[in-house]
Specification:
six-stranded parallel beta sheet; 349 residues; alpha/beta; globular; homotetramer
């Protein structure tokens, strides 16, 4: 397969940097084009970007020029990690101009004709793009991945919903600071502290989870018929959102049934062996004190959701802990896997 | 009122140090006697204790000798913060020998004839000590305060239960490291990390909350008729347990009704103006991002429970955040207020 | 003494907030006027300011309107904590318009006719303002305090220089994040990390220390005849700059002589009992592992410099550790003490 | 080359875990034997060890039984990371019984007939073992590596000493918590804090640096003829000791000369391409704010010393920052490289 040239919108931010890092050496995609805010435009990437990842900036990216976020000269496929303040307009312009925009921004996620996609959870929702192009008259399209907090929740729920039927979900998150981008959370706000609020986060988690686990019917997604409630907190962790989750299921499975559902969970990305697909999308850890961000956040290169501490709940039916890497599985890696799914389905030919 | 001489069992640990600190200048009690493990016995306190509080060790305590944990020579009233491995036997010996033991240890909390007491929540439960003394043939008695995580939860629930009837409670804690004592949590375990497990904590929170909000009937406590489920997590915070709480109440109050119930909450300690009683046992903060340990943990000298972020819950009825100082309101301050209540009722004459 | 009305330039920043907090209840000064950037101007302080201190915003400041940084309507005495990008012009305008500007900004510190002042160290340098007004034709004046890192160093050196003559100083700092203001240091930069660089900090420390310990001769300050070298590092501490210091002195005192010099150090602020003067400007701690920010930063309300770990140095003569509160003694408290010294000398009549 | 069977003394501690991790897949050595305290003896490693590294425990080690620290049955070559309280006696027993003990413990480092070795710095000192065996009548031998703080200092000094002659060194360290082992530093001691003291550390750094850079003459090491002074501090960092270093050299090189000396530095391990030898023992970073533990600690798999911020010093001649991984280059990796050097010289045949 020839490598497809790709670009990044918002290449200098935290998620943009993850895109640059994850695309380095990707077998299907070749990073050829970068765009960011006007302030950065015109500089080579190494100067425009305050690189914050532990791994060094890939050589191939250092010398790429940073463009303005305008369609001319950009490749067909674009990953977008633009701030939601500007993403709406920019992504629309690119889609209208014929580009496939794989967006990590929140702007279009809840639009009825825009796929909100986790390839393991709802690959079929991708077909919404037909209605999208028709209705909007776009030559291109927009496909989105969920919020970084939604991903771990929806991944851990998907096999339970499939096997036992989901009725109620109550989730409390303890979210890493990298989720807020860079400069993001000031040290003075979070060192030795917990902040029990993240703007618009709970609303996103609640709505997106229902869309992700909803059913595609007559060209639209019927939200999942279960209740979701989220408490979102920020904690002084660098990477990895930890979630304390209680659920009620429609049938009465045993604890072992849940573990089996998680451990056996495989889906389209695993079947097709997509490059970024984790072999085990959900890793269940039997230890009494796992998952933990320090030890588990990079499981399967940060693409797995790690669950553990499964036990009965006195109020709902079961409770457990889930962990997901917020800038890989919850952002750049999620978008990449979406692009891989799309290429495997012929959307990028 | 003459000052009553008091002692501390387990004086060198983190909670023991809080007792020493809080008793300094106390209007009703005079710290006259200290005991700790055999390793410390025989030394002056300043040498036996690796003092970890920010305020300096009170002058009056520096030169006190540390005794073994044996009844001879100890004053009538003893505060105990012994490790639960030894607290059972030691506290029993002291109570049998005629001492009033106000214990922060977990050993006796769930015994049917031992008061588990929050003076604002269930002051009437104190009368259980009559059955205790009779049944056990003790001249003294044991009175306990709840686990540091239970306190904030039970405080915030008490006015809701009183006014609207409690049906379901689901709580996720983010607990400070000082709750684990000293040396306690190794830095390598928690720096930049979350640990989703604290041994026996969830069981304690669930059982203690039902006992605290239970009804004293025929000389025993009938557990509260509501379901409680706890997820307990450790986070890199020094002091202050933050809790994300969802509740269902039996009646259908408004958000304003809940705020009013919290703000108007007063009980026996406030009526009697006990020295350690917070003027406002529950402080409601209207900001969208409070309470936070950094800013709110010392509210009312660490004796108030601070609540905020009240909003509807999609799964239960309401959700909110509560914060409580785990070594003051959740341990040493709790025991002190218990002692003040007891003195005001004549139990220490 | 009547309270003098005072104002703050840059009232919404971290140091501005410290000014507001420290002026609350001040016996000599009454906070009557606030100014900040144009973005804040026109709002009441409680809305313009993202308050970051643990103590609540003083009631008296909440309703004060925030003005633009222009002279009209401002009181005689102004504390300035403006960003150095704008401080130069603004402070000059106020001084020209007749105001006394007590500045924490770096812009004028090294001007030959501007006092760089620590009241305990070089109170006599205040007289430089005469030359300043004459030369510049100002009705007002500008007086500055040193950089937050310089203060602890210069305070700890002053009694050694006075008694034994200073020859060489080598200092490595471990600086708190509050020194960078708010939002200041991003969490992603410093959580679990050390940053061995703070822009322009080493140059400031080296030059300012020599000016502070220099001699006023013929209307100008002759820099101290000793060498100073600084390594400046950022560490994940909230408040309190810790400094590892090695010195060579001109005479050959004993370790005890140095301790005695520190412990007996008193100066004009102590003699005149200025309200913000620490009773002991330098507190020597004999423990083997002090000072530490956690325990010692608030010594004497954050106005003392705490020293410890004095021992011989194999390369220079002695080595020790010093600690100083960077936003109190190193910024707002420093400026306040400067103002108190000036009032006690009649400069504000 | 056949793989040589090796064992670990003190296999369950932090450095012991690093040995286990680094030996996994080693081309020359096969981990076949583990020993630890009596408390652990008799259990399989997976049960005896509270594994604290981010990478999972190697499969090959999980099932190995943990032995007592007694010679019978142990392989010829042993890595020791025993606590210094017991290392003296145990290592002596093993050496007397014919084992080659490569020790990370401090007990024998300063013995005149024991090599204190950094293969890049003083490979020739290895020949001291001849005198050792003769004098002590041992069939085996003991070879040591330096303290974790000494390594980065000595590595960065070695090429400067070789090229320009070292005269004076003043070093202030900011040390990671993993240097204190596990459980090691309590969170309550270091979260948001700096501790300006590490027991015996400064003495070790000063003496070891002089021995490492000393000259082997007549069968003993003449300490380097330069002065060294160390300030040692603990900071809330997980891995990586950062050091602010000032030096005076005997000749007058330029800044570029120093950079060239560092960059061109190669030694025996590089020439022989020992498996654990970093290709570049010293990596100079030209950025103004590097090295930093977060970004640079794992340079060359944690085996390089990273230096940066080179500039003139007003008191000594130059100053710079160095960073070294304290449990890899500063402990387990150091010992492994010593073993590789020894095998390449025929000491293990």
């Amino acid at each position: 397969m020839n490598k497809l040239e790709v670009g990044i919108l918002g290449a200098t931010g935290m998620v943009g940097q993850r895109f640059v890092s994850l695309l380095d050496g990707h077998p299907w995609f070749h990073l050829a084009w970068l765009a960011a805010s006007d302030r950065s435009a015109g500089k080579p990437y190494r100067e425009a970007c305050s690189w914050r990842l532990r791994d060094a900036m890939p050589e191939g990216a250092r010398h790429l020029p940073v463009h303005e976020c305008k369609p001319g000269g950009a490749p067909l496929l674009l990953f977008s990690s633009l701030d939601s303040k500007v993403a709406g307009e920019v992504e629309r312009d690119f889609a209208a101009a014929g580009h496939v925009v794989i967006s990590n921004s929140s702007n279009f996620r809840m639009e009825p004709d825009v796929p909100l996609l986790i390839p393991e959870v709802n690959p079929g929702h991708l077909s919404l793009v037909r209605a999208q192009r028709q209705r909007r008259g776009w030559k291109g399209m927009i496909v989105t991945n969920p919020n970084c907090t939604t991903v771990g929740l929806a991944m851990s729920l998907a096999p339970l919903d499939r096997a036992f039927g989901l009725e109620k979900v109550l989730m409390t998150s303890m979210q890493a600071v990298s989720g807020a981008g860079y400069p993001g959370v000031p040290t003075l706000d979070i060192l030795g502290n917990v902040i029990p609020y993240i703007a618009k986060e709970e609303e996103k988690v609640e709505a997106e989870t229902q869309k992700l686990l909803g059913k595609l019917t007559d060209g639209h997604v019927e939200p999942g018929a279960f209740a979701v409630s989220a408490h979102c907190n920020r904690v002084p962790v660098e990477d990895g959102h930890t979630e304390s989750i209680s659920v009620t299921l429609r049938s009465k499975p045993s604890l072992d049934d849940l573990v089996a559902a998680w451990r056996s969970f495989r889906s389209v990305p695993q079947e097709r062996e997509l490059p970024f697909a984790p072999r085990h999308p959900i890793v269940f850890r039997p230890e009494h004190d796992r998952p933990q961000p320090k030890f588990d956040v990079n499981t399967e290169h940060g693409m797995a959701t790690v669950v553990g501490r499964l036990r009965p709940c006195n109020v709902l039916q079961f409770k457990y802990t889930a962990l997901s890497h917020n800038t890989i599985r919850g952002a750049a890696g999620a978008a990449l896997l979406n692009a891989e799914l799309m290429r495997s389905e012929g959307y990028l030919d």
